[in-house]
Each structure stands twice: as C-alpha cells, then as structure tokens.
Design a protein that fits this description.
Strand content: 15-25%
Helix content: 25-40%
Radius of gyration: 20 Å
Mean pLDDT: 82
Shape: flat
Order of helices and strands: HHHEEHHEEHEE
Low-confidence stretches: none
Strand order of the largest sheet: 1-2
Oligomer: single chain
Number of helices: 6
Length: about 150
C-alpha cells in the first residue's frame, strides 16, 4: 500500500492516509496532522472552465471570479503577473514565474552562451532537471553549467 501511495502523482492531487492496525478512521473529519493549507487544497477543485477571448494582438484567459477571490493557489500563481505556459499534448499547463525562475533562466542562458558541452545544451535537460533515466542525476534539479556521463547534444 505504501508503494502504491508513493507512485505517480497521487500525493500532489490527494491526501493519502494508510491507517495502522486497529486505528479508527473518521470520514467526516480531516486528521489532526494535516495543515490548514492541505485541508484547503483537498476541498478545492483541481479543474475549472475558463473563457478564451481572441483579439488581434493575442488572447485573454478569463479565470472565474470565484477562483480569483477564494482559491489561495491563485494568489501564488498570479504573484508576479507573468505565467509560463507549456503544451502537454492537448493540454495547456500554466506555471508561475518567480524570481527564482528568472535567476535560473539567466544561469541557463549563460551556460548556453559559454559554448561548452553542459546540462543546458543536453537533450535530457528540461525545466532545470535531468530527464535521462540512465543518469545518476535523473529527476534532480541540476546546474545548467554541469555535465554528466550521459550528456547528449540537443
């Protein structure tokens, strides 16, 4: 059960509790060890509909007022006023751009500009992480100027 609970993206979407032998479970009340933030996330929708308005210079995404006013995740997403959008198949995923993201992007640009073989110019480098399953750095955030034995040019 513990292995299943850790697999995939279950933990990011659900609170998973595996009760011990003899432990009473109440389905109407959250466990005491959950933070207020975790309890809020459990009750909030994971998906909602937005309206797209196309214009000559681009398009606007209209987020429902209830999400903007009541969902604490929105304030984190909109904190900088700039979002990163990424196509994932047919889905468009939005992510906040934080000051840390800006610094990371500068490091990536500097590593590419150096002309050296490095993680930033490797085909497995994605979102500042190594995506090569054969690398000892797999799924870890890596230094864009670094290089591992599994390096392969873009």
């Amino acid at each position: 059960m513990h292995e299943l609970a850790r697999s995939g993206d279950l933990r990011s979407k659900h609170y998973i509790h595996i009760p011990g032998v003899g432990e009473a479970v109440s389905y109407v009340q959250a466990p005491d060890h959950l933070t207020k933030d975790q309890i809020t996330r459990i009750g909030l929708p994971q998906e909602f509909e937005i309206e797209v308005e196309a214009e000559v210079e681009g398009a606007w995404l209209r987020i429902p007022e209830a999400i903007v006013e009541n969902d604490p995740r929105w304030s984190m997403l909109a904190s900088s006023g700039i979002l990163k959008a990424k196509w994932d198949g047919y889905h468009l995923k939005l992510s906040p751009i934080t000051q840390q993201n800006v610094l990371n992007q500068k490091d990536i640009e500097d590593a590419i500009a150096s002309g050296e073989d490095c993680c930033a110019t490797c085909q497995y480098f994605e979102t500042a992480r190594c995506q090569c399953e054969d690398s000892p750095l797999f799924s870890l955030q890596v230094d864009p100027a670094g290089k591992c034995p599994e390096f392969e040019h873009l």
